[in-house]
């Protein structure tokens, strides 16, 4: 059956990293006999420009009917209307597709260990995954409003919302190194007290997994001090957002980090964790690896094509080893040069 992909290139560097990634998919699919169909849709600032809204109905409908959604990045300084921002479209898309479980892996390989801003002996062999709750918490609580005198955000978690993400994290830990770090702010927040109590209750169902609790401020420190001690980190929406950008720097660049978001059923969404990088947009400097590694996650987890996923992950490793990278990783290649090199490597696939 033909695998149906919706592509959302978005704004800023989004279209630059998406187009080359789809070209890679096209060439690689011929070699690997993978049948797919991709349709492109508007989302983010570009959708506001053309339709007045960041997530047009037809884009949402296309995503709902797809097997997987690939998103590059949205947002930018030109879209600051507090009532109509590109970011609202992304949050609405996540909520509408029920994408409560967001996986954000970070790995430091032999080739990235010296690209890290931290000492090699500290980051060596780091291999962790942040399981971020994606459809609740302070991002979605009501009331939420502001005026010149006061601003209100509401942080709500139900037991059910905590349970389902924590179960996903325990199951993942069982398949990995059987260590789960739960991150909260239990010393201050009510939602975190419920979070920690729920983790402890569920832990009895996974006796083979070792559980560690960290307060979020301490965790941000431990991520720099002992990153290789972590295996699976589970946390709520806002903490996961912040900690995953921090973790992305362990191998040297935010531009390297992919992600995958899942619901209980229906299409998954794959996107790099970085944004539209307005400071480098249009300059052929964007690191395409986070987007390519997001495609690899899509091929593995939604299309069951481990072979193609592994090929992409290996080639990214090889290019980094050969110092064929964009400037954020210390190299001198442009985005389009990297895509050209990838096309020539695909030609060598037998
Ligand atoms: P950002 O992630 O866009 O950029 C932060 C820094 O990292 C910038 O210096 C940027 O140049 C660099 N960077 C990011 N991705 C890179 C890449 N692939 N290659 C090289 N360098 C890269 O964060 P920001 O500047 O705080 O936000 C810009 C816009 O992006 C905002 O509108 C924000 O809301 C949006 N955003 C969108 C997403 C998304 O689409 N999923 C994620 C984060 C931020
Ligand atoms: C991310 C982004 C989004 C988030 C923004 C753009 C809404 O920062 O995907 O990490 O905060 O979730
Ligand atoms: Mn973020």
UniProtKB/TrEMBL annotation:
<protein>
    <recommendedName>
        <fullName>3-isopropylmalate dehydrogenase</fullName>
        <ecNumber>1.1.1.85</ecNumber>
    </recommendedName>
</protein>
<feature type="site" description="Important for catalysis">
    <location>
        <position position="139"/>
    </location>
</feature>
<comment type="pathway">
    <text>Amino-acid biosynthesis; L-leucine biosynthesis; L-leucine from 3-methyl-2-oxobutanoate: step 3/4.</text>
</comment>
<dbReference type="Pfam" id="PF00180">
    <property type="entry name" value="Iso_dh"/>
</dbReference>
<feature type="binding site">
    <location>
        <begin position="275"/>
        <end position="287"/>
    </location>
    <ligand>
        <name>NAD(+)</name>
    </ligand>
</feature>
<keyword id="KW-0479">Metal-binding</keyword>
<feature type="binding site">
    <location>
        <position position="217"/>
    </location>
    <ligand>
        <name>substrate</name>
    </ligand>
</feature>
<dbReference type="GO" id="GO:0003862">
    <property type="term" value="F:3-isopropylmalate dehydrogenase activity"/>
</dbReference>
<dbReference type="GO" id="GO:0009098">
    <property type="term" value="P:L-leucine biosynthetic process"/>
</dbReference>
<feature type="site" description="Important for catalysis">
    <location>
        <position position="185"/>
    </location>
</feature>
<keyword id="KW-0520">NAD</keyword>
<keyword id="KW-0432">Leucine biosynthesis</keyword>
<feature type="binding site">
    <location>
        <position position="241"/>
    </location>
    <ligand>
        <name>Mg(2+)</name>
    </ligand>
</feature>
<feature type="domain" description="Isopropylmalate dehydrogenase-like">
    <location>
        <begin position="4"/>
        <end position="342"/>
    </location>
</feature>
<feature type="binding site">
    <location>
        <position position="217"/>
    </location>
    <ligand>
        <name>Mg(2+)</name>
    </ligand>
</feature>
<keyword id="KW-0460">Magnesium</keyword>
<feature type="binding site">
    <location>
        <position position="94"/>
    </location>
    <ligand>
        <name>substrate</name>
    </ligand>
</feature>
<dbReference type="InterPro" id="IPR024084">
    <property type="entry name" value="IsoPropMal-DH-like_dom"/>
</dbReference>
<comment type="function">
    <text>Catalyzes the oxidation of 3-carboxy-2-hydroxy-4-methylpentanoate (3-isopropylmalate) to 3-carboxy-4-methyl-2-oxopentanoate. The product decarboxylates to 4-methyl-2 oxopentanoate.</text>
</comment>
<dbReference type="InterPro" id="IPR019818">
    <property type="entry name" value="IsoCit/isopropylmalate_DH_CS"/>
</dbReference>
<comment type="similarity">
    <text>Belongs to the isocitrate and isopropylmalate dehydrogenases family. LeuB type 1 subfamily.</text>
</comment>
<dbReference type="GO" id="GO:0051287">
    <property type="term" value="F:NAD binding"/>
</dbReference>
<feature type="binding site">
    <location>
        <position position="132"/>
    </location>
    <ligand>
        <name>substrate</name>
    </ligand>
</feature>
<keyword id="KW-0028">Amino-acid biosynthesis</keyword>
<keyword id="KW-0963">Cytoplasm</keyword>
<dbReference type="GO" id="GO:0000287">
    <property type="term" value="F:magnesium ion binding"/>
</dbReference>
<keyword id="KW-0560">Oxidoreductase</keyword>
<comment type="subunit">
    <text>Homodimer.</text>
</comment>
<keyword id="KW-0464">Manganese</keyword>
<feature type="binding site">
    <location>
        <position position="104"/>
    </location>
    <ligand>
        <name>substrate</name>
    </ligand>
</feature>
<dbReference type="GO" id="GO:0005829">
    <property type="term" value="C:cytosol"/>
</dbReference>
<feature type="binding site">
    <location>
        <position position="245"/>
    </location>
    <ligand>
        <name>Mg(2+)</name>
    </ligand>
</feature>
<dbReference type="InterPro" id="IPR004429">
    <property type="entry name" value="Isopropylmalate_DH"/>
</dbReference>
<keyword id="KW-0100">Branched-chain amino acid biosynthesis</keyword>
């Amino acid at each position: 059956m033909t695998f149906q992909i919706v592509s959302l290139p978005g704004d800023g560097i989004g279209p630059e990293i998406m187009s080359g990634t789809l070209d890679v998919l096209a060439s690689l699919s011929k070699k690997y006999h993978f049948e797919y169909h991709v349709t492109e849709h508007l989302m983010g600032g570009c959708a506001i420009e053309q339709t007045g809204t960041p997530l047009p109905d037809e884009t949402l409908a296309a995503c709902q009917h797809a097997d997987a959604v690939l998103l590059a990045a949205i947002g930018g300084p030109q879209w600051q209307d507090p009532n109509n921002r590109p970011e609202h479209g992304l949050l609405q898309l996540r909520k509408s597709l029920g994408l409560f479980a967001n996986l954000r892996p970070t790995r430091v390989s032999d080739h990235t260990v010296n690209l890290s801003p931290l000492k090699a002996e500290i980051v060596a062999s780091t291999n962790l995954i942040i399981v971020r709750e994606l459809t609740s918490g302070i991002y979605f609580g009501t009331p939420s409003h502001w005026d010149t005198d006061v601003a209100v955000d509401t942080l709500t978690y139900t037991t059910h919302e905590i349970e389902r993400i924590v179960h996903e994290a325990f199951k993942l830990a069982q398949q990995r190194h059987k260590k789960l770090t739960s991150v909260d702010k239990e010393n201050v927040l009510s939602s975190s007290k419920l979070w920690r109590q729920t983790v402890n209750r569920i832990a009895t169902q996974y006796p083979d997994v070792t559980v560690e609790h960290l307060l979020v401020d301490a965790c941000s420190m431990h991520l720099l001090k002992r990153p290789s001690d972590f295996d699976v980190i589970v946390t709520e929406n806002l903490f996961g957002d912040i900690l995953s950008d921090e973790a992305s720097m362990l191998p040297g660049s935010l531009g390297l980090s992919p992600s995958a978001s899942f619901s209980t059923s229906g299409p998954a969404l794959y996107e790099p964790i970085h944004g539209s990088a307005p400071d480098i947009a249009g300059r052929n400097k964007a690191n395409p690896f986070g987007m390519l590694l997001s495609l690899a996650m899509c091929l593995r987890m939604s299309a069951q094509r481990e072979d193609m996923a592994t090929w992409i992950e290996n080639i990214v490793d090889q290019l980094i080893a050969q110092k064929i990278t964009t400037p954020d990783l210390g190299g001198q290649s442009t985005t389009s040069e990297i895509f050209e090199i990838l096309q020539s490597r695909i030609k060598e696939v037998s």
